[in-house]
TrEMBL record:
[4Fe-4S] cluster 2 binds at C196, C200, C203. It catalyses: N(6)-dimethylallyladenosine(37) in tRNA + (sulfur carrier)-SH + AH2 + 2 S-adenosyl-L-methionine = 2-methylsulfanyl-N(6)-dimethylallyladenosine(37) in tRNA + (sulfur carrier)-H + 5'-deoxyadenosine + L-methionine + A + S-adenosyl-L-homocysteine + 2 H(+). Residues 41-159 form the MTTase N-terminal domain. It is found in: Cytoplasm. Monomer. InterPro entries: Elp3/MiaA/NifB-like_rSAM (IPR006638), Methylthiotransferase (IPR005839), Methylthiotransferase_CS (IPR020612), Methylthiotransferase_N (IPR013848), Methylthiotransferase_N_sf (IPR038135), MiaB_methiolase (IPR006463), rSAM (IPR007197), rSAM_horseshoe (IPR023404). Its main location: cytoplasm. This is tRNA-2-methylthio-N(6)-dimethylallyladenosine synthase. The gene is miaB. [4Fe-4S] cluster 1 binds at C50, C86, C120. It is an enzyme of class 2 (transferase). It comes from Paracholeplasma manati.
Amino acid sequence: MIDIDKYFKPNLKQARKRTQADTEYKDFQLDERLQKFGVGKFYKIQTYGCQGNEADGETMGGILRDMGYQPTEDEAQADIILINTCAIRENAENRIWGELGRMKPLKRRNPDLLLGLCGCMAQEENVVNRVLEKYQHVDLIFGTHNIHLLPQYIETAHFNKERVIEVFSEEGNIVENLPKARQNPYKAWVNIMFGCDEFCTYCIVPYTRGKERSRSKEDIIEEVKELKALGYQEVTLLGQNVNAYGKDFKDQDYTFGDLLMDLDKIGIPRIRFTTSHPHDLDDKTIEAFRSCPSVMPHLHLPVQSGSNAVLKKMNRHYTRELYVDVIRKLREAKPDIALTTDIIVAFPTETEADFQMTLDLVKEIDFEGAYTFIFSKRAGTPAYSFEDNIPESEKKERLKRLIKLVNDGYLRASQKYMNQVVEVLVEGVSKQDERTLAGYSEHNKLVNFKGDKSLIGKIVKVKITQPRTWFLIGEACE
Ligand code: 5AD
Ligand code: SF4
């Protein structure tokens, strides 16, 4: 019998706590003795889930690169494999369990391989216990608050030949100066805040990512200036609730809208951000859409449901009417703004009438796209114990009806761009055809057009000639 209580394991109850404690800002520094540790060795990072996780994956890659490791896609070549997980829904977790099982033989073939589990799932008690009991081949578990300690964990696991498990359930600090192995040479993620204090009743994120805490504006501005100097064309500002940026500053009145306006002055061509919460989206942010040329005309604003009764049970802090009003103000400020959203169907107690209100709202707002999900129970959240009274078949039926409506919206939105000239940041060649270039428009529409590979990395004017549901086809204007 292994003693699973000897490790530093997560605790969801602890993770729920929010105190008045000040955020601690620290600087990452790689110990000199570990700077050559990975020379001649290879790493593979497998990231699942949101952009926040992708950004974390780039940080882990940066740390490993600074230790001397090189990236590889080949599992057989890898000396360390990190699985950077997502806990948002049960099916996201099931994929990871499958992956962990599949990787067992790799460890048999190469006993020196270090296999690590990190990301949001690592913050969950039941996950860590299950790994300890059933997945002996996992060497390393660390959480979202202690990525900066990765070098020490690797060293300990390597020399002591012992499992390393350390997951902090603290509210969360901020570590600056972290290296990054960015995956895209034209578009970069920039974290501006971490954590979430909204506590929507279905959501595990406030437990896995800690309290809302903002990076200093100076550090963010510096990072964006550096990215511009390196030739990046686009930054996406990241946070679980970006609109709460700055609300934790005790010594200054500086919020998300102020940040957008300051970043706009830097002159990087494109600024995007995600994710926004309707209840925190203020007039200054709306003003930034109107007055800042680099703020792109697309907003992803999760609504979750069109029924006030369901929104209340979700603890969303807004009504359908407030949401509609925010959209009205946004469209007044930026008439062509593209709007996308997230919707959960079959939340416990959702009636057919509630669901109908969601369908009506989708029609009323006329979204250009939406991510749609069936409610998934997450252990540790309040909604876990809400009575789930909707039959499986009904859940699937509602999702199907919603997707049909959402897809009609995608096509209608695409058709709006017919004969229009859009600007495309060219990212590469199309998956289907080597001679076709692909990139995203200001409104975040995927655009394909014929052109020379030398245009990759540039912003090109394209006239749309064939709008399709999921992408637009066009012709270069210059
Ligand atoms: N079940 C289903 N969907 C969820 N989301 C978050 N938590 C859950 C859950 N427990 C969805 C929300 C959120 C998006 C990132 O994932 O719509 O906006
Ligand atoms: Fe989860 Fe709600 Fe926070 Fe989004 S705003 S991360 S859905 S708790």
